[in-house]
Write a structure and sequence with these properties.
The protein has 295 residues and is α+β, with helices and mostly antiparallel strands. The protein has one domain: 2,3-Dihydroxybiphenyl 1,2-Dioxygenase, domain 1, CATH 3.10.180.10. The chain is built from four helices and 16 strands. The chain has helices at residues 28-38, 84-93, 152-163, 213-221, and strands at 15-22, 42-43, 55-58, 61-64, 75-81, 104-106, 113-117, 123-128, 139-148, 167-172, 175-181, 187-193, 204-209, 225-230, 233-240, 247-257. Strands 2-3-4-1-13-16-15-14 form an eight-stranded mixed beta sheet. Strands 6-7-8-5-9-12-11-10 form an eight-stranded mixed beta sheet, with helices on one face. A hairpin with a 2-residue loop joins strand 3 (55-58) and strand 4 (61-64).
Length: 295
């Protein structure tokens, strides 16, 4: 029996899940073409089923897409997909109906990676399941933000000291970055850039934490709580250096406790290859996980 396990690889830290990214969209029809028909994701069948908002499932994470003035995340959203060849085929099928938008996609390394832009300019990096993302077969392994040069050290301290999330400084796509553990095989990445940053347009991410009150108290004593949502949730926007108090970046965080009514709610993920022409009972669902690779 094997006994030389590295138990530290199972440590989570205080953030136990990066559940959703919320960006406003300009048109629900175009959002459906992109997220459902193009990316092959699944509209949540239980919540937000009207015409003013939709929730899109991607493994155990989601996109929340209310219809208002479009918002653009300052960075990229990473997605894991089970079959990038099929993804390219789906994206090609929606190119014509999305031709008057910012939609585009390219596979710079063959089909090992597919870079996609949504109709309103949000950027995605789609990776093949397996490898460093194993056992994630479908999901959101990271959200990467562009931040000013020199900000990464203070950002790492903020998440480590204020949120209790393990953080490190490393290279990400050739740039110094703060990388924050944000759930099982999930990370928040803050990548330094010299390029000008667009003004913050109030898009948000949502995380679940085990220690709910500790970060709240540390944020409140610094005047950083932006919304007292309810018993199970609060929000903050500013990321500051806990040592100097310097403002470093803005991204709205929706922080939920593990007693939140939506914690652990199962997400439906369909198999986009299943159609009325190809339907076979038992193959209409898609698992968020794939088998572990050999260690």
């Amino acid at each position: 029996m094997r006994e030389n396990f590295d138990r530290s690889t199972e440590d989570m830290g205080n953030i136990v899940g990066l559940e959703h990214v919320n960006v406003q969209v300009g048109d629900q029809r175009l959002a459906t073409l992109f997220y459902v028909s193009g990316l092959g994701l699944t509209r949540d069948p239980y919540l937000q089923v009207g015409v003013t908002n939709m929730w899109i499932n991607v493994g155990r994470s989601q996109f929340h897409l209310p219809t208002r003035e479009p918002q653009v995340l300052r960075g990229r959203i990473g997605l894991v997909m089970p079959n990038l060849d099929a993804l390219v085929d789906r994206l090609e099928s929606v190119r014509e109906p999305l031709e008057d938008t910012k939609f585009d996609f390219v596979a710079p390394n063959g089909n090992d990676l597919v870079e996609v832009t949504c109709p309103w300019g949000n950027r995605f990096r789609c990776h093949e399941a397996g490898g460093k993302f194993d056992p994630m077969g479908l999901g959101m392994p990271y959200v990467q933000f562009d931040v000013p040069t020199g900000a990464s050290d203070g950002i790492a301290r903020f998440y480590d000291h204020i949120l209790g999330a393990p953080s490190r400084i490393d290279d990400w796509d050739g740039a110094r970055s703060a990388i924050i553990q944000a759930g099982f095989r999930q990370e928040l990445v803050f990548r330094e850039t010299d390029a000008p940053l667009a003004p913050f347009d109030e898009h948000h991410i949502q995380i679940y934490v085990t220690d709910f009150s500790g970060p709240y108290n540390r944020l409140k004593e610094r005047g950083l709580i932006s919304q007292e949502s309810n018993q199970h949730q609060y929000r903050f926007v500013k990321i500051v250096d806990p040592d100097s108090g310097e403002d470093l970046f803005e991204i709205d965080h929706e922080v939920r406790s593990m007693t939140h009514p939506l914690w652990g709610r199962p997400f439906v993920n369909r198999n986009p290859a299943s159609t009325n022409q190809t339907f076979a009972a038992g193959y209409e669902h898609r698992s968020w996980a794939v088998p572990w690779t050999a260690q």
